[in-house]
């Protein structure tokens, strides 16, 4: 049974905003896409805070929250790259973002099928990756709304920092995955 609480509602709102965001990009409405994505990104920070602060952590949230995050972010990277917007992500960056997520998902499923359980421990690097991915998307959309905000140096720096945390979080999750494979269920 789904536990109805504010944290879970915010997670569902984020998931429901994904098609609205995609439609805004499809129709080349970067301002609307920016507003929708920013609201969705804020729900990511707020729902986690509320869940921990007010003891609203639930199985539903543990499962659906990362799905909502990845759906939002992967959609953003793919649809911005494929849009007619003048400023978009480099192809190699989009491939790395998606590949990292698929790698972590495949590893998680592998652990679950081998061990019969999976304990996901969000790492500081994983949280930083999400933060910088969201920041990079917001900056890209903002630059497409008003080209005067665009700075190639800032854009490249954001992509570089995001890439760094993607690598660090991937290494952290890989290490944690191997550790779980080698331990017995307690």
Automatic annotation (TrEMBL):
Record flagged with keyword Lipid biosynthesis: yes
InterPro entries for this protein: CDP-alcohol_PTase-I (IPR050324), CDP-OH_P_trans (IPR000462), CDP-OH_PTrfase_TM_dom (IPR043130), CDP_ALCOHOL_P_TRANSF_CS (IPR048254), Phosphatidylglycerol_P_synth (IPR004570)
Transmembrane among keywords: yes
Any one GO CC term of the record: membrane
Enzyme Commission no: 2.7.8.5
A GO BP entry: glycerophospholipid biosynthetic process
UniProt pathway: Phospholipid metabolism; phosphatidylglycerol biosynthesis; phosphatidylglycerol from CDP-diacylglycerol: step 1/2
Catalytic activity from the UniProt record: a CDP-1,2-diacyl-sn-glycerol + sn-glycerol 3-phosphate = a 1,2-diacyl-sn-glycero-3-phospho-(1'-sn-glycero-3'-phosphate) + CMP + H(+)
Transmembrane regions listed in the UniProt entry: 7-26, 32-51, 89-112, 124-142, 154-175
Major enzyme class: transferase
Compartments where located: Membrane
Membrane topology note: Multi-pass membrane protein
UniProt keyword annotations, A-Z: Lipid biosynthesis, Lipid metabolism, Membrane, Phospholipid biosynthesis, Phospholipid metabolism, Transferase, Transmembrane, Transmembrane helix
A molecular-function term among this protein's GO annotations: CDP-diacylglycerol-glycerol-3-phosphate 3-phosphatidyltransferase activity
Sequence similarity: Belongs to the CDP-alcohol phosphatidyltransferase class-I family.
Stored NCBIfam families: pgsA
Name of the protein described by the UniProt record: CDP-diacylglycerol--glycerol-3-phosphate 3-phosphatidyltransferase
Species the sequence originates in: Sulfurihydrogenibium azorense (strain DSM 15241 / OCM 825 / Az-Fu1)
Gene: pgsA_1
């Amino acid at each position: 049974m789904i536990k109805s609480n504010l944290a879970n509602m915010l997670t569902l709102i984020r998931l429901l905003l994904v098609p609205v965001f995609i439609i805004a990009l499809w129709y080349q409405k970067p301002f609307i896409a920016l507003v929708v994505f920013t609201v969705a990104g804020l729900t990511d920070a707020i729902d986690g805070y509320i869940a921990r602060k007010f003891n609203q952590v639930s199985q539903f949230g543990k499962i659906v929250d990362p799905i909502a995050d990845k759906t939002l972010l992967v959609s953003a990277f793919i649809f911005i790259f494929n849009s007619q917007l003048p400023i978009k992500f480099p192809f190699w960056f989009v491939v790395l973002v998606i590949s990292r997520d698929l790698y972590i998902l495949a590893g998680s499923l592998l652990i679950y099928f081998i061990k019969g359980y999976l304990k996901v421990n969000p790492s500081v690097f994983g949280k930083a990756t999400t933060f910088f991915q969201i920041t990079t998307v917001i900056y890209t959309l903002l630059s497409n709304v008003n080209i005067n905000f665009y700075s190639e140096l800032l854009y490249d720096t954001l992509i570089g920092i995001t890439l760094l945390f993607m690598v660090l979080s991937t290494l952290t999750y890989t290490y944690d995955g191997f550790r779980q494979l080698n331990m017995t269920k307690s």
